[in-house]
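Project channel, design review

CF: Before we commit to the Geosmithia morbida constructs, I'd like one complete example in the thread so the newer folks can see what an input/output pair looks like. Taking diacylglycerol O-acyltransferase.
RD: sounds good, go ahead.
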Amino acid sequence: VQTSNGATVTHRSTSSSNGDDSTTPNPTPTPARPPRSKYRHVAAVHSITRPSCLSHDSNATPSFLGFRNLMVIVLVVGNLRLMIENMQKYGVLICIRCHAYRNQDIIMGLMLYFIIPCHLFAAYLIELLAAQQARGSRKRIKEGRTGPSDDDRKRFHTAWTVVAWAHGINITLALALTTVIVYFRIFHPLIGTLTELHAIIVWLKAASYAFTNRDLRHAYLHPVKGEAVPDLYARCPYPANITMGNLVYFWWAPTLVYQPVYPRTDRIRWLFVAKRLGEVFCLSVFIWFATAQYATPVLVNSIDKIASLDFPSILERLLKLSTISLVIWLAGFFALFQSFLNALAEVLRFGDRAFYDDWWNSESLGAYWRLWNKPVYTYFKRHVYMPMVGRGWSPSTASFSVFLLSAFLHEILVGVPTHNIIGVAFLGMLLQLPLIAMTAPLEKMKSGTGGSTHT
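CF: and here is what came back for diacylglycerol O-acyltransferase:
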């Protein structure tokens, strides 16, 4: 149909499925398109005021995910070039049969592996005798009294003194005997380090076992006036927790802090365990490869530079070694805290698996030390820092004591297996204190309230 102005309008009829010629109205009419301009070169490209994408006055913050991907590509390509250069220069330095070790090292290491846990069982025997004495004292306390009599308190103090001395001698022997044997009898650094680390872990666990049961025993002997005990412990109250099974679970549990009861999961996911153990194996091989292929040549080639005091070359070697060390450290961190401890926790159905927090977002060095190794941090906070603060010591003095003890243990762990006790690890830990003080303002600025963002 042609209209009066010359335009042609076409009417389209729709037939029904049964053959009728009746028309059906369109329920959703198509909107009319705006008329297209005949001129293609006059479009208004710049029609509004807009800042650049990266300007500070931009309305929307762009995503930098592409830059992250680009940096990952650059990192991979750069390290691939270094790997090719290393292979061309040194060849393959991996050699399984080149590692010299003596049969005596293996024999002494295995012997200490079975002897060291005996100190935990000695702590159990001490606590078993103390629990029997506590049961007898509890029976003598009359009903309705807020606590024991003066004579009972004297007996408690005497018993605690004996128990404390017994625990002190036991844990001292656990660390001292192992240290002496490793220093004088074991010369392979890896075997010595694993043995010394085992002794330090048992030393810390035995001390936690003694301190915790001491407080539980005090609360047990003061049923009315005693300090509050966590509700979680009601499932296994003192002295019912002094059993061999309870101790063995604590021995293997991925924690240094003793509790009568831990949160537990319902079942064991064996596929999860297999994946974590596979990660441990692969990362261990990677650490071995990176150490032998990259770290060792850098150290060997640095000896003559240090002897000649070639400071530019020393700085270059130090920066090169720092990169390798960082990669090895990250691989070791993931293998231990994410893979191995999670596998162990899954087998034991250990529920609390906060072995670390987001230390990579630390605002200060102090926050980093609180976040990256939660088992050690919670141990020293519970058994050293908080007891000292509760007895009137200042927080700074308590923190210094924590780092002093940690420095001592680090020096033993590093110096004894390498037969090189020169105080490097000790000073390295103590010097963290001024660095923590220097970076503390950064954490306060981040929190916005002048306090720490982490507890």
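RD: helpful, thanks. The first helix runs from residue 65 to 90.
CF: The chain has three domains: 103-252, 265-349, 359-455.
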